[in-house]
Amino acid sequence: MLRCVTVAALATTLALAITLPAAAQAPRKFPATALRGELVITQPPELRLNGQPGRLAPGARIRGADGMMQLSGALVGKKFAVHYTVDPGGQLLDVWILTQAEFAKRPWPTSAAEAAKWRFNPDAQVWSQP
C-alpha cells in the first residue's frame, strides 16, 4: 500500500516537473492599452514614470519579469522597463516588469497618442506604425 502511494507521488512530481517549465516559457500577452515606460517606485504609492511623478492606483498589480506578483515596497529605488496601464484617473493600474526579450520588441508606444495612431497585433504582440 505504501509502495503504491510512493509511486503515485513520484509520478505526479515527475509530471509536474515536465509541464511546469513549458508553462513558464509561454509569452505574456499585453493588452492594446499597455504603454511602455521606465518606472521607479519612490515611496509607495508614489512613483516616477518616465521621469514624471505619479501614483499607483488602489489595487494596482505589479507583475515581475517572472510573472509573479510583486509588492511595491520591495521595488523601492530600482529602475525597471515596464509595460503599464492607467485607470481613468491617470494612476498606474497594471504594471508588467519586462524581460529582455519583451523589451526587445520594438516599436512599442510610450503615449496614448502613439497608440491611437499605430496598429496592434494582439496575437503576435507587435505594434506597427502607419
Note down, in words, how this protein is organized.
With 130 residues, the chain is of the alpha+beta class. It has helices at 2-24, 100-104, 112-117; strands at residues 35-43, 46-49, 52-63, 69-70, 79-86, 92-97, 119-121, 126-128. The strands form two sheets. Strands 1-2-3-6-5 form a five-stranded mixed beta barrel. The chain has a two-stranded antiparallel sheet with strand order 7-8. The radius of gyration is 19 Å and the shape is globular.
The gyration radius over C-alpha positions equals 19 Å
List SSEs in N-to-C order: HEEEEEEHHEE
Report on the biggest sheet. 5 strands, mixed, barrel
Structural class: alpha+beta
Strand order of the largest sheet: 1-2-3-6-5
Distance between the termini: 67 Å
Contiguous helical run count: 3
What is the helical fraction, as a range of percent?
Answer: 25-40%
Poorly predicted spans:
none
Q: What coarse outline follows from CA principal-axis ratios? A: globular
Multimeric organization = single chain
Give the total of beta strands: 8
Overall pLDDT metric: 88
Strand fraction equals 35-45%
